[in-house]
Amino acid sequence: MGDPVQLKDEGNKHFQAGDIDKAIECYSSAIKVHLHSIDVDAADIKALYRRCQALEKLGKLDMAFKDVQRCATLEPKNRTFLETLRRLGAEIQAKLKTTFSTDSRVQNMFDILLDEEMGKENKEKAANNLIVLAREDAGAERIFQNNGVPLLLNLIATGKPEMILAAVRTLSGMCTGHKARAMAILHMVGVDKLCSVMAIDDEEIALAACNLFQCINDSLTGGDKREYGKEEALVLDASKDLKTILLSLLEMVASKKVSGHGRDQALNLLSKNVPRKIRKEKDNSRTLFTIDHGLKKILKVCGQVPELPDQLPLTENTQLIASVLLNKLYDDLTCDPERANFKDICEEYIKSKIDPKDMDKTIHAVNTISGLLQGPFDVGNALVGHQGIMEMMVALCGSERDVDQMVAVEALIHSSSKMSRASFFITNGVSLLKDIYKKTKNERIKIRALVGLCKLGSAGGDDYSLRQFAEGSTEKLAKQCRKWLCNPQIDTKTRKWAIEGLAYLTNDADVKDDFVEDELALKAMFELAKSKDKTILYAVACTLINCTNSYDKKEIIPELVQLAKFSKQHVPEQHPKDKKDFIEQRVKRLLKAGVTSALAVMVKADNSILTEQTKEMLARVFLALSENPRDRGTIVAEGGGKALIPLALEGTEAGKVKASHALAKIASISNPEIAFPGERVYEVIRPLVSLLHTDRDGKQNYEALRGLTNLAGFSEKLRVKIVKESALPDIESYMFEQHDQLRQAATECMCNLVTCKEVQERFLQDGNDRLKLLVLLCGEDDEGLQTAAAGALAMLTAVQKKLCTKLTTVTLQWLEILQRLCLHHNPQIQHRGIVIVYNMLNSDDSELAKKLIESEMLEILSVIGKAEDSPKRQEALDAARTCLVKAMDLGLIKPFTNTS
């Protein structure tokens, strides 16, 4: 192979002559020969060092470091080796620091994402890293400062869904909680660009873009609490940007260029951010602005008939989301003139669409009325009452076109929601619906006509005496609904109407009892509840409410019933199958069919279709399902614990209370790690504490205390969280409660909380009766109460020696109560009493110890200590003997000696 020195010299000659290629060839050969010499002699220091120098020049610092490390090991006093070792070590550390610095990481991720030749797996990893980095303030700022926004726009420009998603989610992280950065990004990207991304026909991208808009909105409207100093003026006024966003969203609502998913998210953003969140706020200008500039656009969405040509792109959820938005806007109005203006705009729009010569425009008007009837019902109902509207709907029912009949029947169904109007239809419209049901061959129209009949048949609610149809008619209607529901050949949108029918018919106890026995029908309903079509949520919730009888029931007072009968007034009657035993059986069948997993999916619905009213109904169902302790394990196993948390935190007041009550029932007997995995367990505490308020009923107070007791016994972090949620004053007040169960539950909760330092400090404070109360509760006759109070006292006196002395000053009965504890027949109570005695002996208060031993306590301890070992009482026996040993150590008693 040649001599390496000779090869090096030849290389030098070629280099000086300007022949670079031949020089490189010689040098490479020399290196190969030189490195080959190391294989022959691994201890060749010269060869190792030469290779180290070569590797360093090539940038392979880690390999060079290993070679010089071997050199330094062979010659530890060689200064050249030691200096090279130190220098290379520093260079490697600097390189690592640069490689892993945020700036470098950000640039590397963008390089990977924009590299066409890079593999999919590497790109996905880089995208996820970028998103995670953007969620940290430092990372978000680095991305922003390092030209990140233009690079993210480049990712969006690729048109590839995964790149667009990564970019949008990264921008969301960068905008979260930072007003200045959010405003800057909004201007750099542009509202139009963001809208165009949200308009893409991809559900995931539309949702991500919606989330970005929400992050920007939250930051610009006060989510950012930072102090900006001199820059404050630059980021203070965001009103112009917010107005631009609002106008752009309203443009999206009625634009044909926007996909169904994009339209859904635009409507969701309007629904979430336009109406006031807190009704006490007087400013509803955003709602008034939206009505003036966008109400007709929203009405246009409601009126779309997908079966006709040239309609806006929609999803199965779009029109109901639009109806929900209309309802929220109408509810946010504050006075009659504002409501009159809303109605006038709606009336003007409907009139502009009614054209006897153009049937497509006319059914658009009818469909718009259907949308209003599902939203602000009073407005829709007033429009139906106008001359000619009802006649037009009836006329459409007789049309030869299927689409006309379908739209008209749906409008009739929605307009008969009130009892008075239903009565009108029972007289005038039943024959029409029956005729349509019998004659039409179109299954989609047939099922809608059936639902109309179902709705009319259930107009009396659960009042057994107000049946509208003949005996057995509702059961026949329900049977047909179940048949359609279980038929997979029928499309989802049509099967949905079968559940609508059951939502009305299950007011009848015979129908609900038959339904829950049909496991196939139940499972079919639950599968539909998990589908993408979220318009079904309300009907499923209504059906479950009826099956579990979890609606509010008016208390029937016998005296008033007699008075009503005497005055010949109507008296509601309960169906025999609506009694407790039947309800319990229905609950068991629902649980067996998988109702909990369906509810868990329904709760996750991330759009405005999951209204506060629907949330309340789901909370009521959960509460009914969790009534029996033996069923709570099933609920936890299918994700019911996690699903209840958002219901307890958001929604109507009644809904939050019901969900909190169900949470309390589950928390009282379940392992928190399993029922509420991860950090979710900390979210459970606030709803439980809310149930301690005095305006809640005794059952709710009791279940909340039991739930908090279980959580407090689980970890110190949970105990600290309970204290931070200001639960202690309420818990203490229930310890004074006259109701035995509430008092015991509160004392048990306190027993689990006393290991928390803040709780101990409350007992150390002067001028309160906390310690006195515990001592007196130890003297009560209720064993459960004694166990809890004595346990709390035992733990307190063990960790706070001052309380041992304080205990003797709070009541003159302290010694008598303590002696009763030590003589108690219950081994647990006896053990706790003796532990308290030991803590007092160990309290460094010699006078207190002397006082105890001079009392009858010595004899009590001696008798217990001399008793034979017993598994049931061993803890108490051992504790008594420990007390006697302590007394001997203190010199208060002497050991017994046998003189014989």
TrEMBL record:
It is found in: Cytoplasm, Perinuclear region. The keyword Cell cycle does not apply. Keywords: Chaperone, Cytoplasm, Developmental protein, Differentiation, Myogenesis, Repeat. Residues 268-456 form the UNC-45/Cro1/She4 central domain. One of its GO terms (molecular function) is Hsp90 protein binding. Signal peptide: none annotated. GO terms for biological process: cell differentiation; muscle organ development. InterPro entries: ARM-like, ARM-type_fold, TPR-like_helical_dom_sf, TPR_rpt, UCS_central_dom. GO terms for cellular component: perinuclear region of cytoplasm. PANTHER family: FI21225P1, PROTEIN UNC-45 HOMOLOG B. This is Unc-45 myosin chaperone B. The gene is unc45b.
